[in-house]
Design goal:
CATH superfamily of the largest domain: Trypsin-like serine proteases
Structural class: mainly beta
Subcellular location: Cell membrane
Shape: globular
Protein name: Transmembrane protease serine 7
Radius of gyration: 38 Å
Number of domains: 6
Helix content: 10-25%
CATH architecture of the largest domain: Beta Barrel
Strand order of the largest sheet: 15-17-23-20-21-19
Number of strands: 40
GO molecular function: serine-type endopeptidase activity
Membrane topology: Single-pass type II membrane protein
Largest sheet: 6 strands, mixed
Strand content: 25-35%
Bound molecules: 4-(aminomethyl)benzoic acid
Oligomer: single chain
Distance between the termini: 111 Å
InterPro entries: CUB_dom (IPR000859), LDL_receptor-like_sf (IPR036055), LDLR_class-A_CS (IPR023415), LDrepeatLR_classA_rpt (IPR002172), Peptidase_S1_PA (IPR009003), Peptidase_S1_PA_chymotrypsin (IPR043504), Peptidase_S1A (IPR001314), SEA_dom (IPR000082)
CATH class of the largest domain: Mainly Beta
Number of helices: 9
């Protein structure tokens, strides 16, 4: 056996247990099983054949390596395929977020723990019910799953269940899932009984309040951060103590913040969130936002308020239930993002009162919106009854920064008011207004009409003498509203019907030669304050300067505050004008010609604003990165988003702009009223400032001095690519210009009625020369005689048709908005 073994290496068939000789040698300290094989001893010589090394790249190894290579390749391919499939699946996944109230299950504290048996059991029941609803619906093919995210108590009793529903459409290719249909399937599945006359019905055996069902399309990112594993900085707070302030603070200087703060108070109370400061990238909520919801999940229709800009002003918001969600999103932090806030548990407030007013006329008390000075929540209803002791006394209401007007068919945006059975709509103003009710008994009801929380309201009340509504020292407006004498003709509509401003054109300064040269309006300032223009006649001559004015290079005196980029050399060497480059007269003279097509390059501040690639509105260049336009161009969800907008500068024929920039930010005036077109102004910040090299083709237009009065009869120009006729259905390819005349404000008011001091009229009474659809937001440019500079006097806003006789165009009066413009574009100063 041994010989055989030593002579030749055994064939595999020869290997038997009995053929193998094993020698066991004990080595201290070594484990026997790990011993190396010993060489055969004695006669047994090493086999030459076995000693001969086989080459590594033999066929067998090559096959093994090749198989291994193929295997690795298959694993990589499979992983990539899986990634691709899961990615396309998620692209076609549709997320819905909602809540409803189950009335016949009592809340248990264990429901707050997501891992508890109690939570899991109720969540499973709800998920099964929702599964059944959708798997038996028309959307069954696409239904994937429902996930219960929260089960909470609420002030109406029972359980409030918050959930997500996911649908997957394999080849959606940009199709969207109908939100109303998904919600309708759920609502229609609730069997209500007409006999019971309650909103509670049976949803597959669960008692669900039909009125509590809310279901909206949601975001995949919210889905992941509320129920997924990437919950980031999300937190849950349960507040039990009434007198405590629960802090809510988070900040970061890099990375991202995608936080969901769920706030829950004890049953029967509400939550007041007070925001002390927010740091965000101000981009109109494109990436960064802080949103407050009246729910525990980001359900769009329950949003109470959204903030898109950093602020340090204390603001507070109140929920309508014992819960609130605060989401803070800042996905690309560059400097600092965060929030400093706190929340409190507060009792529900009733806003109803009966007030017996004093017999001495005058304001004596205040009423306010619920939870004043907090923003008041939607769905409010307040009633106040006022009674005067004498039938000769009526009730006066002084609204702070707010006004009410007769309700139109359209409905109200900021509260509707019922006063002694007459309906009014409220809107925010920048001044106070007084409303008088000539009755000793007045019923006032306020109902919130905004879908979001609204700014707090404060109203002073008191009695007034019905037969003599105005105190002696005040001026009586035509509708019986009173204002102090000093507040007449000041560009502010103190009267309901704005009659205090109607007569302003008749008040002219006393153009007595003796007062020329004194500080005041009658200086050489480019405005013809006197009818005959006497105040501007001797402007090249030296006029002695007072200490409130200073001497400038052409020996004309101006007040110091006038030293800014206004085309007037206020400083001795005109230095304040050096850095300003709003358009001077040089290149502009040749443009004063009639005709429809403008000369190319004649209006270098004219901008065409394109929405999703099509010309939509006009605008004017006022600096290297800011444009001025009309607020109504950006009214609505999609239009207020800057992403689909591009600004086309230095353009003559549509589509051939010298410079195109996306829009970084749209600032719509906070008082813009979409019903009356009051405050129709918006600022646009370009993503890319136009380059200096284009300064021959692109030039900013000058902003008028604050409060500058316009002179009726003055000739100005309106420009744009809008329609050439009212009946046309598309705009002009070539930039059009039309000469129009500034129209007396009284005439404008008598034509249209609802003309505020933020508006001015321009046109020709015969019609013909006018702006039209598509010109909106574009400039009304007036050339200042004193220095030839072009001034942006108006912004195309609205009008009755286009070019109709006796219906001039209505423009936003830019001089009213100078402080507002400077707030956002301080470099213009
Ligand atoms: C518009 O719809 C529009 N005639 C703009 C100006 C005028 C009328 C309509 C003034 O954009």
């Amino acid at each position: 056996m041994d010989k055989e073994n030593s002579d030749a290496s055994p064939k595999p068939a020869d290997l038997k247990i009995s053929n193998i000789s094993i020698q066991v040698v004990s080595v201290p300290g070594r484990l026997p099983g790990r011993r190396p094989l010993r060489k055969p001893i004695g006669k047994a010589r090493p086999n030459k054949k076995s000693k001969k090394r086989t080459p590594f790249w033999n066929v067998q190894n090559k096959i093994i390596l090749f198989t291994l290579f193929l295997f690795i390749l298959a694993v990589i391919a499979w992983t990539l395929l899986w990634l691709y499939i899961s990615k396309t699946e998620s692209r076609d996944a549709f997320y819905f977020v909602g809540m409803f109230r189950i009335t016949n299950i009592e809340f248990l504290p264990e429901y707050r723990q997501k891992e508890s048996r109690e939570f899991l059991s109720v969540a499973r029941t709800v998920q099964q019910v929702v599964n059944l609803v959708y798997t038996t619906s028309a959307f069954s093919k696409f239904y994937k799953q429902s996930v219960v995210a929260d089960v909470s108590s609420n002030n109406k009793g029972g359980l409030l269940v918050h959930f997500w529903i996911v649908f997957v459409m394999p080849h959606a290719k940009g199709h969207i899932f109908c939100e109303d249909c998904v919600a309708a399937i759920l609502k229609d599945s609730i069997q209500t009984s007409i006999i019971n006359r309650t909103s509670v019905g049976s949803l597959q055996g669960l008692a669900v309040d039909m009125d509590s069902v809310v279901l909206n399309a949601g975001l995949r990112s919210d889905y992941s951060s509320t129920i997924g594993s990437d919950q980031g900085c999300s937190q849950y707070f349960y507040a039990e103590h009434l007198s405590l302030r629960y802090p809510l603070e988070i900040s970061a200087t890099s990375g991202q913040l995608m936080c969901h703060f769920k706030l829950v108070a004890i049953v029967g109370y509400l939550i007041r969130l007070s925001i002390e400061s927010i740091q965000l990238e101000a981009d109109n909520c494109v990436t960064d936002s802080l949103t407050i919801y009246d729910a525990l999940l980001p359900i769009r229709s329950t949003a109470l308020y959204r903030l898109c800009e950093p602020t340090r002003t204390l603001m507070s918001f109140v929920s309508t239930n014992n819960l609130m969600l605060v989401t803070l999103k800042s996905p690309y932090i560059r400097r600092l993002s965060g929030i400093r806030a706190y929340f409190e548990v507060i009792p529900e407030q009733k806003c109803q009162n009966t007030v017996l007013v004093n017999e001495i006329p005058g304001f004596e008390g205040k009423i306010s919106s619920p939870y004043y000075p907090s923003y008041y929540p939607p769905k409010c209803k307040c009633t106040w009854k006022f009674q005067t002791p004498l039938s000769s006394l009526g009730i006066a209401l002084k609204f702070h920064n707010y006004s009410i007007t007769r309700k139109s068919a359209k409905g109200c945006e900021h509260g509707w008011w019922e006063i002694n059975e007459h309906m009014y709509c409220g809107s925010y103003m920048d001044h106070q207004t007084i409303f008088r009710v000539p009755s000793p008994l007045v019923h006032v009801q306020l109902q919130c009409s905004s879908r979001l929380s609204d700014q707090p309201l404060l109203v002073e009340y008191g009695s007034y003498n019905i037969s003599q509504p105005c105190p002696l020292e005040s001026f009586r407006c035509s509708s019986g509203l009173c204002i102090p004498q000093a507040q007449r003709c000041d560009g502010v509509n103190d009267c309901f019907d704005e009659s205090d401003e109607l007569f302003c054109v008749t008040i002219k300064p006393a153009c007595d030669v003796a007062v020329f040269g004194q500080p005041g309006p009658l200086v050489c300032d480019g405005f013809r304050d006197c009818d005959n223009g006497q105040d501007e006649h001797n402007c090249t001559q030296s006029i002695p300067c007072t200490n409130r004015a200073f001497k400038c290079d052409n020996d004309i005196c101006f007040k110091k505050q006038n030293a800014r980029c206004d085309g007037i050399g206020d400083c001795p060497e005109g230095s304040e004008e050096d850095s300003c480059s709003c358009s001077r007269s040089s290149s502009a003279l040749h443009r004063i010609v009639g005709g429809a097509d403008s000369p190319e390059g004649a209006w270098p501040w004219q901008v065409s604003l394109h929405f999703v690639g099509s010309a939509y509105c006009g605008a004017s260049v006022i600096s290297r990165e800011w444009l001025l336009s009309a607020a109504h161009c950006f009214h609505g969800n999609r239009l207020s988003d800057p992403t689909p907008w591009t600004a086309h500068l230095g353009m003559y024929v549509q589509g051939n702009a010298k410079f195109v920039s996306p829009v970084r930010r749209i600032v719509v005036h906070e008082y813009y009223n979409s019903q009356t077109f009051d405050y129709d102004i918006a600022l646009l910040q370009l993503s890319i400032a136009w380059p200096e090299t284009l300064k021959q083709l692109i030039q900013p237009i000058c902003i008028p001095p604050a409060g500058q009065r316009v002179r009726s009869g003055e000739k100005c120009w309106v420009t744009g690519w809008g329609r050439k006729h009212e009946v046309d259905n598309k705009g002009s390819p070539v930039l059009q210009q039309a000469e129009v005349e500034l129209i007396d404000q009284t005439l404008c008011v008598s034509t249209y009625g609802i003309i505020t001091s933020r508006m001015l009229c321009a046109g020709v009474m015969s019609g013909k020369q006018d702006a039209c659809k598509g010109d909106s937001g574009g400039p009304l440019s007036c050339r200042r005689k004193s220095d030839g500079k072009w001034i942006l006097t108006g912004i195309v806003s609205w009008g009755h048709g286009c070019g109709r006789p006796n219906f001039p165009g209505v423009y936003t009066r830019v001089s009213y908005f100078v402080p507002w413009i400077h707030k956002y574009v301080p470099s213009l100063l």
